[in-house]
Specification:
The protein is an alpha/beta fold and 274 residues long. It has one domain: Alpha/Beta hydrolase fold, catalytic domain (Rossmann fold, 3-Layer(aba) Sandwich). It has nine helices and eight strands. The chain is globular.
């Protein structure tokens, strides 16, 4: 495996001068197996209410993906006090980086997923609904197909700015514009789904008290309405922010202890390959 970091930088007016870090985990091709194998890739976006990026949804997730032969790229995108649309542009530029280096890293350029958790799920879903939006093209001036995610993997995602919103995420995302109906509506992603939204895998827990399960259900419903292939898993119980749901991401769990939702990652890997 190769591990290295690179920098992602936007030229937006409201973006900080310092770039953000993209951590890259690349499996080696072995002559014992297949030196020419093309791997799927996934850009991982940790959660944290757009106020921080959680370590529980960072390296452990990337290593699980790479153990399944999937190239993983973890983005520590800008958070508050940096505001929309900086993180979205950084996520899309990360997809561009992966696609531009597909030959070098033995990546299938037509199988690049974006996987996000909580507010990172909102960011991942945003890449899926806005990759070909005129607003983004005006900001980045990049051919949309180059920044298009092929698949989305959303873990207990923030989606709606309406009745079931996680208000803290939208306050951090929008700052002084947090009451601006135009930008709240724009970032209520169940309203932004089109037939061009990538096929999507979603999981959530029924009794999530931080981000209500209705967020996932509303996004899934919009996907189905637009005939976008969708896989949705709702586990009957579990707190918010479970990540892998095992000892790797929780200091109080012992090896072998795992939450009922911990099989989501195996389902997501199958979704990526199929």
């Amino acid at each position: 495996m190769k591990y290295f970091t690179t920098e992602i930088k936007t030229n937006l007016e409201n973006a900080p001068k310092q770039p953000v870090t993209l951590s890259c985990y690349i499996p080696d091709n072995s002559p014992d197996i297949d030196t020419n194998r093309l791997h799927p890739a996934v850009v991982v976006l940790p959660g944290g209410a757009y106020g921080f990026t959680s370590d529980r949804e960072n390296e452990a997730v990337a290593l699980k993906y790479i153990s399944e032969g999937i190239c993983a790229f973890v983005l520590k995108y800008h958070v508050a006090p940096v505001r929309f649309p900086v993180a979205l542009c950084e996520a899309l530029l990360s997809v561009l980086y992966v696609r531009d280096h597909a030959d070098e890293y033995h990546i299938d350029p037509d199988n690049i997923s974006v996987c996000g958790f909580s507010a990172g799920g909102h960011l991942a879903a945003s890449t899926g609904v806005f990759w070909n939006h005129d607003y983004i093209f005006k900001l980045l001036s990049i051919e949309p197909d180059k920044i298009k995610p092929n698949k989305l993997i959303l873990s207990y995602p923030v989606i709606t700015s309406g009745e079931y919103a996680h208000r803290g995420s939208f306050e951090n995302l929008l700052g002084d514009e947090k009451e601006n109906e135009k930008w709240l509506e724009f970032n209520s992603l169940e309203k932004q789904v089109t037939k061009d939204t990538p096929e999507t895998f979603i999981w959530h827990t029924y009794d999530d008290e931080a981000v209500p399960v209705q967020n996932s259900m509303m996004f899934a419903s919009a996907l189905i309405e637009h005939k976008v292939p969708t896989e949705l898993h709702i586990y009957k119980s579990g707190c918010h922010g479970l990540s892998l749901g095992n000892y790797l991401v929780y200091g109080d769990k012992k090896y072998g202890d795992s939450h009922m939702s911990s099989d989501w990652i195996d389902k997501a890997v199958r979704f990526i390959y199929n």
